[in-house]
Amino acid sequence: MKVIGIIGAGHIGKAAATQFLANGYRVLISNSKGPETLDGVVSQLGIEAKAVTAAEAAAADIVLIAVPWSNIKDLTKLTDWDGKIVIDASNRFEQGAGIEDGGLTSSEVVQNCLPGAKIVKAFNTLAARVLAENPSVGNGKRVLFISGDDKDAKTIVTEIVSKVGFAPIDLGTLAAGGKLQQFNWPLNNQNFIKL
Which fold has domain 3-194? Predict the structure, then answer.
């Protein structure tokens, strides 16, 4: 059983955890306040969810980050990110928001903050309530967009997205596809169904 670490126990983190847990994954979920504050979240998610510190969640082979944009820099020293697959579900609601971006997409900024990590942008374009719903809709599946620069990491995240029941659509690199997925860009908050 694969383990996915989740850093961020807000609406998106909990919605993603719900989908992972319903499809055979174990989840290590964390927040900035400590695992003792997550008893209610873990009891709601179920037996395969465990509340941990952010550093413990970051130690998983696959990590989903769903933290406020202003907290992205805080993740830098949690672990050795080199070679780790990181699913970036964060959204930059404010341009820059305290992080110098130099015109980069939000996921390229995340890549710079987590040196050596294999960043795949996903789980960020749907509202949390929609993300938590059954991804099967009628005769189709709800679409989740992904983008990234590492082919192997994208393959693994594509498999996860498919296993939890969504229809993955690869948009290409973090620079090209990541831009389309950003907040206030064309694909953000679009609930597409693939038939």
Answer: Rossmann fold (3.40.50)
